[in-house]
Structure formats: structure tokens, C-alpha cells
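Title: Comparing notes on inverse folding

I've been comparing how different people in this forum approach sequence design from structure. To keep things fair, I'm posting one structure and asking everyone to reply with a full sequence. Here's the target:
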């Protein structure tokens, strides 16, 4: 039997950005290996997250400010307006959050706690904490896996309910089913992912995927 292949990019929702940089793809391959231990898995996810941060922040507005170099004064660009808000979907989102904060140390941080009902696969919320001024910021929602899309849809809905209308979603791997579900529920949200895999299995896991991201990050079962 041939191994599953990724979805052709032409079939993706128009809001999908596949960040296929060779360094990201190399590190993702190492993460996919079943024998990769938890400590290496976490480090690889952190490194990929830093690389993804460059792409997801490409359109952040800047403004010119006057600075003094060792030789002269000049007008130089700096980030403008409110800093970003990184919203981690617990528990696995913390693996991406660490890498993003390495690049964006001034970002505010929010958390949405969700777990997947093992029977219905519906997202069940158990925790929510967002910055009070999130409505004035761009929120980047973080979750390693976009599988059924139920958790992503729920997390983005909570961020929107807080008044925030500028939202992006970042994941490591997406399934076509999850991309479709998120786009149908939130067509204004751009999704950044390192890979689009073949499909979901009967238990809602991405194939070929990396297994359960949370379990592999924390070494649990």
C-alpha cells in the first residue's frame, strides 16, 4: 500500500497558507518519526514555531521612528500599534507558544482550555483567560493539530466573542476536513500550517500525522 500523500495545494481553502520552507519540512519529518523522544519532539516543535512566526507576522504594520546609530540619526522601522496576542489552545498549544514567544517576547498571552469528547469528537471548553484589551490586538490562535476543526472553531469563536476581529490560526499539521470546517465557520481567519496531510482516521486523528501532539510533547499516554 502506498503511503498517504499531502493534499494538492490547489484544493485548499483560499485562506490557507502552507509554509513549506525546507528547514521546516526537515524538522517536521524528524517529529513525525515514532521513535523521536519527547525532549527532541518539544525542541523541534519550538524551532518550527519560531520559523512559522516569521511568516505569520509578515504583514504586521510598522512605523518610522528616529534613532541614533553610532554614525548618525535616521528614520528606522519599528512595530506599530498594540502588540500581538498569542492564544494557546490547551494543552498542546503550549508547544507552539514557547517558540512564538522566543520571537515575540512582548506579545500578550491568552489561553483556551479545550478537550475532545472521545465519542462525539466535539470540543468541550474547561478554561478561558484572555487579555482584557484583546479587541484592540491581532490574535494568533495556536494549536499543533487542525484535525476535525472542532477545537479550532470553538477557540476562534471564543476569541471573536471577546471582541477581537483580527485573528490568525497557526498549526503544525492540518487535515483537509479541519481546514474545510474552520473556513466554513470563520472564512475571515487565515490559517498557517507547515503541512496538509491526507485525511482523518475513524478516531479523528490526522493521517499520516504525528500521533497525539499533547502526548508526544509531554510524554504521556
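Reply #1:
Here's my take.
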Amino acid at each position: 500500500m502506498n503511503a498517504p500523500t499531502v493534499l494538492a495545494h490547489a484544493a485548499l481553502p483560499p485562506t490557507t497558507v502552507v509554509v513549506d520552507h525546507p528547514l521546516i519540512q526537515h524538522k517536521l519529518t524528524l517529529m513525525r518519526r515514532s521513535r523521536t523522544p519527547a525532549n527532541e519532539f518539544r525542541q523541534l516543535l519550538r524551532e518550527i514555531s519560531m520559523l512559522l512566526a516569521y511568516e505569520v507576522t509578515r504583514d504586521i504594520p510598522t512605523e518610522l521612528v528616529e534613532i541614533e546609530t553610532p554614525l548618525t540619526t535616521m528614520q528606522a522601522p519599528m512595530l506599530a500599534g498594540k502588540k500581538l496576542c498569542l492564544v494557546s489552545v490547551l494543552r498542546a498549544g503550549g508547544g507552539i507558544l514557547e517558540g512564538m514567544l522566543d520571537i515575540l517576547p512582548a506579545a500578550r498571552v491568552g489561553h483556551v482550555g479545550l478537550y475532545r469528547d472521545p465519542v462525539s469528537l466535539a470540543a468541550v471548553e474547561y478554561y478561558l483567560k484572555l487579555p482584557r484589551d484583546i479587541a484592540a490586538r491581532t490574535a494568533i490562535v495556536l494549536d499543533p493539530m487542525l484535525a476535525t476543526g472542532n477545537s479550532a472553531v470553538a477557540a476562534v469563536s471564543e476569541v471573536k466573542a471577546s471582541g477581537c476581529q483580527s485573528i490568525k490560526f497557526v498549526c503544525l499539521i492540518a487535515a483537509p476536513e479541519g481546514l474545510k470546517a474552520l473556513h466554513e465557520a470563520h472564512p475571515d481567519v487565515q490559517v498557517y500550517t507547515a503541512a496538509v496531510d491526507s485525511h482523518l482516521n475513524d478516531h479523528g486523528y490526522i493521517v499520516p500525522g504525528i500521533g497525539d501532539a499533547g502526548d508526544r510533547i509531554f510524554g504521556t499516554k
